[in-house]
Write a structure and sequence with these properties.
single chain; 225 residues; alpha/beta; eight-stranded parallel sheet; 8 strands; 20% strand; globular; binds D-xylitol-5-phosphate; binds zinc ion
Length: 225
């Protein structure tokens, strides 16, 4: 099994999102990550389904949608209609995770659950059996460019073990402060999908940054499935 890279447009120039999406495609990104924020679940406000739909025409790279919003079920279909190929809601925001997962899968999209750094992994126990992935937040969500929270590596390792014990097929995605310096240990701890904003967009060379991330992930060695 290989590693998937999902640049987050949150750190791109919002006046040129189409160009940013095309640069991700040129760099061989596996996904483009959209950070949807509602000003309630997190203090910041970003983009909604109209922007997703518009950018769907700019690239063939599939969209990985991270809903940092309250009551996500009430607007979920708008994101699915706009072209999401995988979508995560927060365990802190959505009590009906089974209903969510069933609905999303019924639309041919991969359902995932996101979890904040301060939320116990045990709250995922049951959901591991019906989501396709867990999005482990390694910063408190709300802004790009924050520092990776120490201790998150151990958390990914513990989640990996929980998934194995539960007999779940869920994969682990990591979001927040990911860069070439910490991606290899995260791969070894069991993560397979990486969201990266600042480390992809901050130096103006998107394809080069994606390549450096991939090389760093590859240095983790042979991966188990
Ligand atoms: C945090 C978001 C992220 C994050 C990624 O609220 O969910 O996707 O901003 O950006 P970096 O890699 O800059 O932390
Ligand atoms: Zn995100």
């Amino acid at each position: 099994m290989s590693v998937a890279l999902a640049p987050s447009l949150l750190s791109a120039d919002f006046s040129r999102l189409g160009d940013a999406a095309r640069a991700c495609e040129d760099g061989g990104a596996d996904w483009i990550h959209f950070d949807v924020m509602d000003g309630h679940f997190v203090p910041n406000l970003t983009v909604g389904p109209i922007v997703l739909r518009a950018l769907r025409k700019a690239t063939r790279v599939p969209f990985d949608v991270h809903l940092m919003i309250e009551e996500p079920l009430s607007t979920l279909d708008q994101y699915l209609d706009a072209g999401a190929a995988r979508v995560a809601v927060h365990v802190e925001a959505e009590p009906h995770l089974h209903r969510f997962a069933q609905h999303v899968r019924g639309r041919g999209v991969n359902p995932g659950v996101a979890i904040n750094p301060g939320t116990a992994l045990a709250s995922l126990d049951e959901a591991l059996l019906f989501v396709d992935f867990v999005l482990v937040m390694t910063v408190d969500p709300g802004w790009g460019g924050q520092a990776f929270i120490e201790g998150s590596l151990d958390r990914v390792g513990r989640l990996s073990e929980m998934i194995r014990r539960a007999g779940s097929r869920a994969t682990i995605a990591v979001d927040g402060g990911v860069g070439p310096d910490n991606i290899a240990p995260l791969v070894r701890a069991g993560a397979r999908h990486f969201v990266a904003g600042a480390s992809v967009f901050s130096d103006g060379d998107v394809p080069g940054s994606i390549r450096r991330l991939r090389e760093a992930a590859g240095s983790a060695g042979t991966l188990r499935a």
